[in-house]
Specification:
single chain; EC 1.1.1.133; dTDP_dehydrorham_reduct; RmlD-like-bd; about 290 residues; about 45% helix; dTDP-4-dehydrorhamnose reductase; alpha/beta; NADP
Length: about 290
């Protein structure tokens, strides 16, 4: 890798997966520690003026964007301002910017898979924040790659998987939507995708724009939950047995979570040669890592 790579958010689950995968291929990252109050416009300005990397992977707010149960509007607004400043700095210093986003920019009304050409109409606070961030990156930094991921699964304490497994240990029955669909995406697979994109950018290939990636085989929340528990029972014996279907509209997060969130991944395949991997194959390693740290 000829490019000097900077990773904001090297301490979170996706950042750690990217560092692990990079180390296997002798690819290293500058991964500065964030200030105590987190990255903001001033600290990002100082950082990039001092370091001038060739490419930057922005996972600084990964947990809030992909794993947190709830995040307030003011926090998202501050993050959007910081990302806008980051995009300005990348444009000024000619740094390639790789920015993650999410299926949440869509409203979930489309029963077929969403391509990159579909209109973004986010319904929830998180989706609206991510859409604003996408727009600011596009307007400010032409040399960007935006990757919208499907349902990201990781081993974060208090993340989506962690909260689900905690419920599975304490509740008598779990209810999951059997009419909500998406692409589960283990965090190691997401890291593989990011690294593959960086390798091609290292070849000076100008493949800027927006791409979708999700694990192979779209599924329902119910089927995903059953698959996770099937693997988790190999490691824990006190997990709930009853996993029951419930309508998306009856779920407490129906106003925030798109019902149909399947992403079409043809563009990333044709442009970068990145093939979707089966999400089920990534569950054993993910759950093993999760239970080793709880």
């Amino acid at each position: 890798m000829r490019m000097r790579l900077m990773l904001l958010g090297g301490g979170n689950s996706l950042g750690q997966a990217l560092i692990r995968l990079g180390a296997e291929e002798d690819i290293g990252f500058l991964a500065p520690r964030p200030p105590e109050s987190g990255w903001d416009a001033a600290s990002l300005t100082q950082l990039l003026d001092d370091t001038r990397p060739d490419a930057l992977i922005n996972l600084a707010y990964y947990f809030d964007w992909f794993q947190a149960e709830a995040v307030g509007a003011a926090r998202f607004d501050a993050q959007a301002l910081a990302v806008e400043r980051l995009a300005e700095l990348c444009q000024h210093h000619e740094i390639r910017l790789l920015q993650p986003s999410s299926y949440r920019v869509f409203d979930g009304s489309r029963a077929t898979a969403y391509s990159e050409k579909e209109e973004a109409v986010p319904i929830g606070l998180r989706g609206q924040a991510l859409w604003r961030i996408e727009q600011r990156v596009r307007a400010t930094c032409p040399k960007h790659v935006l990757v919208r991921f499907g349902w990201l699964l990781d081993d974060s304490p208090q993340g989506l998987l962690s909260r689900f497994l905690a419920r599975a240990e304490r509740e008598q029955a779990l209810y999951l939507a059997d009419d909500r669909r998406g692409n589960p995406t283990p965090v190691d697979d997401a890291a593989r995708v990011i690294l593959a994109i960086l390798k091609q950018l290292d070849c000076e290939t100008p493949l800027w724009g927006t791409y979708h990636y999700g694990g192979h085989e779209a599924t329902t929340s119910l089927a995903l939950g059953q698959a996770i528990l099937g693997e988790a029972r190999q490691l824990r014996g006190n997990l709930v047995e009853d996993v029951l279907p419930q309508a998306h509209a009856a779920r407490p997060d129906a106003a925030e979570e798109p019902q149909h969130a399947v992403l079409a991944c043809k563009k990333i395949l044709h442009t970068f040669g990145i093939k979707p991997r089966a999400w089920r194959a990534g569950l054993p390693a993910l759950l093993d890592r999760y239970y080793r740290h709880v």
